[in-house]
Structures are given as structure tokens and as C-alpha cells.
Amino acid sequence: MNLIEWFNQNQGFVMAFLTLIYVTATVLILISNSKSTRIMQQNLLLTDKIQKENAKLALHTKRLEAFDKLNQLVIKIYEEGPKSDYITELLKTCTNVYYLFDDEIDIRVKKIVFDIQRLRRIEYKARSFAQTKKEKQSLDEHKKALHENLLESLKELTEQVTSYLDIGDSGLDDEEDDEKEDDTAEDKD
């Protein structure tokens, strides 16, 4: 009975003590949840990075094949000029490249595809609608300018794809190799 009487007499103190325990437990739960959320975010970032690398490795041979075909077409176009059958093949290859690579390469491929479509429209106009010598000459000049733009864009695309496909000795990107070397140097200090 003494204990019950003591609690009745000191109920304010007991309530304050219980509230303190409750607040402390709540703060500890919040801290724990914050740490788990941070760990989950790091794990998600790591998982995303691993999935991207796995996709990159899984698509690597297809990307190399598409890049090889693109290079062969670029060489043919440089040597023999942008003939109609090369342009058709280039359009197909660029579509493959578009679906196999990341956004930064996609933008350049879209520009090349757009230039190819413009080139085809100009060639069609030159064949079908150009009647005077001046009209044909104007369309030919426009076609030559598009050829030069197309060749320059293809050169930039092949350089960009080459750097994209460049994988270091350990199968990781060069940037990741540099990061690992930096981490190793920091661990030694």
C-alpha cells in the first residue's frame, strides 16, 4: 500500500518522468529512422549504379557492333560521298545507336537523323521540283552544306561513342578507377 500512496502523492513527478521517457524514446526512434533512411538511400543509389553498370555490360557487345557498323558507314560516306543507300543504312544504324546508348548520345543521334531527313527532302526536291539551273544550284549548295554538317556530326558522334565505350583495365570506367585510386591513397594516410 505504501507504493500506491507514494504514487498518488507524487503523481506529477511520475507523469513528468514517464513523459521524459516517452520523449526520449521518440527522439531515439527518430534518430534511428533517420539513419535507416540514409542507409536505404545509399543502398538505392548503389543498386541503381550497379544496375546501370550491368546494363552497360550486358549491352556492350551490341553497342560495339552498332558502333562498328556506324564507323564503317562513316568511312564509306567519307570515301564515296553520302549515297542514298548509305544514308538509308546510316538511318537504321543511328536508330540502333539511339536505343542502345544513353541520353547524351541520343541527342546527337536525333540531330543526325534530323539532318538525314532534311537531306532526303532536299534530294527529293532537286529530283522532282527543281526546273531552273539556279534552283538546282541552290539545292546542290544546300545539299553540300548538309553533307558537311552530317559528316561533322558523325565525327563527333563516333568520338562520343568511342569515349563512352572506353573501359579501363579492371572493367570499370576510367573515372571509377580514378576514384578507387583516390580512396586507396586516402586510406593509406
The total beta strand count reads 0
The number of helical elements comes to: 7
Q: Calculate the mean pLDDT score and round it.
A: 79
| Proportion of residues in extended strands | under 5%
**SSE string, helix = H, strand = E?**
HHHHHHH
> If you compute it from the alpha carbons, what radius of gyration comes out, rounded to the nearest whole angstrom?
33 Å
Counting helices, strands and paired strands, the structural category is mainly alpha
Low-confidence runs: 168-177
| Helical fraction | over 70%
Coarse shape: rod-shaped
Q: How many strands, which pairing sense, and closed or not: the largest β-sheet? A: none
- Separation of the first and last Cα atoms: 66 Å
Structural commentary:
The protein is mainly α and 189 residues long. It has 7 helices and no strands. Helix 5 (103-128) runs antiparallel to helix 6 (133-165). The N and C termini lie far apart (66 Å).
Produce the secondary structure layout.
Layout: H1 2-9, H2 11-58, H3 60-80, H4 84-100, H5 103-128, H6 133-165, H7 174-188
Briefly say what this structure is:
With 189 residues, the chain is mainly alpha-helical. It is built from seven helices and no strands.
What are the main properties of this structure?
189 residues; mainly alpha
